[in-house]
Amino acid sequence: MGPEVSIILMIVGGVIGLSLLFYILPLNLWFTAQLSNVRIGLLNLVLMRLRKVSPALITNAMITATKAGLRVTTNKLETHYLAGGNVNKVIKALISADKANISLDFKLATAIDLAGRDVFDAVQLSVNPQVINTPPVAAVAKDGIQLIAKARVTVRANINQLVGGAGEETILARVGEGIVTTIGSANEHKEILENPDSMSKTVLAKGLDSGTAFEILSIDIADIDIGDNVGAKLQTDQAEADLKVANAKAEERRAMAVAGEQEMRAKAQEAKAKVIEAEAQIPLAMAEAFRSGNLGIMDYYKMQNIQADTDMRSSISGGPSNKKK
After folding, report:
1. Stretch (H or E) spanning 147
2. What DSSP string runs through 201-252?
3. Which of 119, 171, 172, 315 has the fewest CB atoms within 10 Å, i.e. the most exposed one?
4. CB 151 within 8 Å of CB 204
5. What is the dihedral of CA 105, 107, 109, 112, to 10 degrees?
6. Pair 119, 96: CB distance under 8 Å
7. How sure is the predictor about 198, in pLDDT bands with cuts at 50, 70 and 90?
8. How far apart are CA 68 and CA 62, in angstroms?
9. 10 Å Cβ neighbour count for 273?
């Protein structure tokens, strides 16, 4: 191996060694921190490397916080970083809250961040209220007229309720429930159309933002439309149902009448059959009477004369005997 190669290897080794030294000892970060009046020891920066914490991230966050007048420590920032939090957003949120005179400490800010909420956006929402548009809410007044209302809910973030507080869906659900209750309590739909602000006052008085991550500032009715005449429709449906029931009962009575008539006919046919059967026994009875001597020939002629006389009278009067002939 020649002397030139040895020199090159020494130069390369020196460069690599210096790079490792500056990586392990971030002198530039330490110098920047000292110029910004942030007291971070060089050994502390080295230990951050060993703890797998980004020294640049912590140092820049400390510089930003110090310039904004916030009192934070590197230990707290490291703890939040290792817990999976977003250090930069926490610092930005604390600065924004401090400038807006909103009470927000480091512990609450980190709790909000670790809960999965954007703490900086929450502070911005607390400063600049947000308008939430509700979907169309349909309800029926006591006179049966349906009203369809849309509302705009102005809310701002409730910093103290961001952890564990309900979200926008709960606000919308509660506002919708309040609108339905207010419309349903009105005797006439005209009362709501004439005074839509009464609906806003009633809903606001219910304290709908309790237990939520928001504070309701106002509820404004954006639009009210008249829907169907639900009362008349229900009456029509009821009348149709009653008509079907009446028709069913009438059909039942008709069927019972037909069955009764058929039963009477069957009984009449049975009675007629018995009469015919009885009439068929008369000649036999007469023959038996002749044989036993209970009926004589003169008695038989008298009976025939009476029968003929009866048939003649029936024919004159148009009775059953004549019709039979």
Report:
1. strand 145-157
2. HHHHTT-TTTTBSEEEEEEEEEEEEEEEEHHHHHHHHHHHHHHHHHHHHHHH
3. 315
4. no
5. -140
6. no
7. confident
8. 10
9. 10
